[in-house]
Structure formats: C-alpha cells, structure tokens
Amino acid sequence: MPIECRLLDRPGIQLRVWVGAILMSTTVLIVDDSPPIRRSLRAWFERRDGWEVCGEAENGAVAVERVKALNPDIVILDLSMPVMNGLEAARKISSIAPKTAMVLFTMHASEHLTNDARSAGIKYVISKLDGAAILLDSVESIVERPRGKTA
C-alpha cells in the first residue's frame, strides 16, 4: 500500500511523493487515417486520469511498426485505411504483441465484422456512430483500475 509523504506544502506550492508504488498510465495507440478523428480521440483519452496516448498511426502498416516500438497496452484501430486495413493490422499485432488489447472503432460495424474482428484478436467492435464516450467505456472495461506496479 503506497504511503503519501508531503515534502513541501506552502501556499501555491505543493510537492507530494508516494512511497511504495509507481502508478502507471495505460498507454494507447490510436490508428485512423483521419487526422481529425485521431486528434479527437487523443483529446478524449488525455482528459481522463491514468491514460496516455503513446502514439498515432495513419494506417495499419505504420500501426504494426508503432506497436513494435511503443508496446502500447491498447490499440484503437479503424477498419478502412490505406496500405493495410484494421483487420490485417490486428492479425499482425496479435502475433507480435499478444498481450496488447485491440478495439475496432469503425463506421462499418456489423455482426459479420464483429466475428471477423474477434478471430483477428480484437476485443470490441464499436461503431463511430455510437461516439467516443462508448469507445472509452469499452476501453476502460479492458483494463483493471487503478493500474499500478509496486516499486
């Protein structure tokens, strides 16, 4: 159990240290060919405590390389992208980073797509029509909160 120690507590200045645990952010890689969607999702995640957007990618091929380099906890994938689509990327990500959770955020949600997505290693398929709030709730259900590791 972490212990909070106040090192400095003056008007306007406060420094605190928690001894015994390091609280880690859940890292997210956002993959979508639309810059406005990537910016919007980044803003949504960064408004929540305990979340860090570690990177972005504009297509599945770049996403696979970013997963290798960044080792995110969660990847948010669009389906329709140039170079490599979200399902192809998910298959590759599943093989190189099997512990990385994936969510498909797409305009093309359907039962058939959900079955294909699950076989590719994707945990949830969320329609963009449902909005970012539903996506964030789904992503939060994947991880245990708070996410901490003992020092």
List the helices and strands and how they pair.
Layout: E1 3-10, E2 13-19, E3 21-23, E4 26-31, H1 35-46, E5 51-57, H2 60-70, E6 74-77, H3 86-96, E7 101-106, H4 111-119, E8 124-127, H5 132-142, E9 148-150
Parallel strand pairs: 4-5, 4-6, 6-7, 7-8
Antiparallel strand pairs: 1-2, 3-9
Give an account of the 3D structure:
The protein has helices spanning about 35-45, 60-70, 85-95, 110-120, 130-140; strands spanning about 5-10, 15-20, 20-25, 25-30, 50-55, 75, 100-105, 125, 150. By secondary structure, the protein is an alpha/beta fold. It has a single domain (about 25-145), classed as Response regulator (Rossmann fold), CATH 3.40.50. It has a five-stranded parallel beta sheet with strand order 5-4-6-7-8, with helices on both faces. A two-stranded antiparallel sheet has the order 1-2. Strand 4 (about 25-30), helix 1 (about 35-45) and strand 5 form a beta-alpha-beta unit. The radius of gyration is 18 Å and the shape is globular.
